[in-house]
Structure formats: structure tokens, C-alpha cells
């Protein structure tokens, strides 16, 4: 669990949880209020899900594949729906996320193979949305 997950479940600030999680070498031990300790210690750990493909890998290939789809006119929300992820994940992977799960990378590769030869407009994407995405992708490629 991340510090943010713990904070959300305990109803505490993420800063406080991060302070609690620091190792002894990073900061001297401080007195912790009993209610805070009970809030953190009372959290039930969620059941661990077995990943379909374990591990993290570089996002370079997935980033290039998503950029190809953008140049073809596929908007991020449509790709996110097909991948089963948040629509903000697509631009993150395409632009700045250094690593991603192997499972997501494989799904992106499969989706690219499936969609790259198709016209987005023929698949239900509005022509204006496809044109906007193509223009943004061309602008982004010119900057890079």
C-alpha cells in the first residue's frame, strides 16, 4: 500500500503518514497521538490481487504506440475505455510516466495492433475529436 492509500483509508493527511513511514535514520522518533496510531494500525490491508503480468517496465514503447494512435486520431478517453483505465493514464504514459506495469504495456501493444489500421471516425469517434487529436499530436511531435 502506498502512503496515499494508507492516508485515505485512515482518514489522515498523507504528510503525516509519510512521517510515520520514515525509517529511523531519516528522522528521530516522535510521539504519535494514540488516535493517529489507532487510525493507522486499524487499517485492514486489502487482499492482494495476482497481477496478470507482474513487474514494471519502461514506458518508451507504450508511449510511442500511444503517440501513433494519437497521430491516427484516436482520443485518449476512447483508448482509456478500451484499455479499462482512467482517461488521465493515457497522456501520462504518452508524455511523462517512466515505467508502467507489464500488463498495461501488453494491453497497449494489443490495442495498437487492433486500432492503428482503422479510421477512428468509422469506429464512432466524432470527426472534430479525431481532427483535434491529430492536430495536438502533430504539435507535440514538432516540439519534441
Described by strand count, sense and barrel closure, the largest sheet is: 2 strands, antiparallel
Question: How do the helices and strands follow one another from N- to C-terminus?
Answer: HHHEHHHEHH
Tally of strands: 2
Taking strands numbered 1, 2, ... along the chain, how are they ordered across the largest sheet? 1-2
Decide which structural class fits the backbone.
mainly alpha
Which properties best describe this structure?
mainly alpha; two-stranded antiparallel sheet; 2 domains; single chain; 144 residues; 8 helices
Overall description:
With 144 residues, the chain is mainly α. It has two domains: 3-41, no CATH class; 56-143. It is 57% helix and 4% strand. It has a two-stranded antiparallel sheet with strand order 1-2. α1 (3-10) crosses α2 (14-21) and α4 packs across α6 (89-95). It is elongated and about 60 Å long. The relative contact order is 0.13. The model has no long low-confidence stretch (mean pLDDT 82).
What is the compact description of this entry?
This protein is mostly helical. It is 57% helix and 4% strand. Strands 1-2 form a two-stranded antiparallel sheet.
Annotate the secondary structure layout.
Blueprint: H1 3-10, H2 14-21, H3 34-41, E1 56-58, H4 60-71, H5 76-83, H6 89-95, E2 99-101, H7 102-115, H8 127-143
Antiparallel strand pairs: 1-2
